[in-house]
Amino acid sequence: METLVFLFSFSALGVLYAMNTTPEFQEPYVILETGVAVLVIVFLFYYLITRGNPPKDFLFFVFAEFCFTCVIDLTSALEYDGIISGFMDFYQKTGEPYLGTSYAIMMCYWDGIAHFILYLMMISRITDRRAYRTLGLFWAGSLCANMSVFITGIVAGKYGSEVRPAFWLNFLFLLMPVLGAVTLFTRPKDRPLIGGYNAQHVQTMKLIWRPLDLILVVLLLAAMAFTVLRGLVALDSPLEACSVYLSQYEPYLKDPVGYPKVMMLHLFFYGLPLLGAFVYGLLKPGCTWMSDWTTFFAGAMIQCQWSHIGGSLHSRTTTPFRIPNDAFWTVLGANLLYAAVPVLVAMRVHSNPYFFLKIAPFPGQTGLPNSEEKDTKYKEK
């Protein structure tokens, strides 16, 4: 099935070409109506071809539908970068002109490549009746961050006065990952939540005897400080440290397109509490929520940092807002490390989860009766 979805998704090129060569399809409201009609047709296509063996998971249709739009996003990015032409001229003028900003171009590359691969992988797992919860949470975090920054940046930045009807289609791509995240968070985990002797042994160890966790705690605290600094810059703090950082390191934070500022505020108000929670989770044993939230936030962070780093380096960013040459490697290194920290935490949680499991009472301990202990030890939520 994933092969069929992959091949059918490229029919989006035919739709774009037809609209680009037919003036009647290039009016703002016609673009919106055509977009809705195409999305409905794509959904009906997948619904009809799967009637004989319908998928057990409704998110199959979301992933298949979004594969189609991934091709559109990739086409948009390639055309803005001058690699291809003849598909998106009309959309650049009367559809969504802000897609030509450096941040949006990098966002479209991420959607057209990274999300496309994730969708195909998850469709394959759904078809084979295999679990995909971890992949799904990573995707949900990535697309939620993607669309929340994108939509807010449009209305808060310099393109706020150029909102066209096609803008409203973006809310579908914000609603679906939110719905997907709620669905996946409430599903049973793929792994047990109750640990035995190994978990009990690991959880008795102090942080000093867990060097990897100690390093991750230090990195998380550094990431929190970095988040606060850039959040204060986005809030126009008069602190000297903020002024120095803005002028000498990342002037891109004040790009009038609005996306960098919105992203910093997202990370300040939503990312900072999560980073603090992860520090707590590495200190306090038995935090079973760590596996889900580290995965979700890793997806969000890596998407944001991809678009932010790429946007600051892209040729469409005007010279005054690019990284100064004498601070280039410092800023690039700091941003890459900042993106890597949540990913490293998520990898640590999933590779050795004993510290994050609940401990089942053993025979001789107060708690459940022996017969229930044996069942609980292997219980999966």
Automatic annotation (TrEMBL):
Organism expressing this protein natively: Poecilia formosa
Membrane topology: Multi-pass membrane protein
Family membership noted in the UniProt record: Belongs to the TM6SF family.
Alphabetical list of PANTHER family matching this protein: SI:DKEY-19F23.3, TRANSMEMBRANE SUPERFAMILY 6 MEMBER 1/2
Record domain EXPERA: where: 56-181, 212-346
GO BP terms: lipid homeostasis; regulation of lipid metabolic process
Keyword Signal among UniProt keywords: yes
Main location class: membrane
Membrane-spanning ranges: 28-49, 58-78, 98-123, 135-155, 167-186, 207-229, 263-283, 327-347
Keyword Membrane: yes
This protein's name: Transmembrane 6 superfamily member 2b
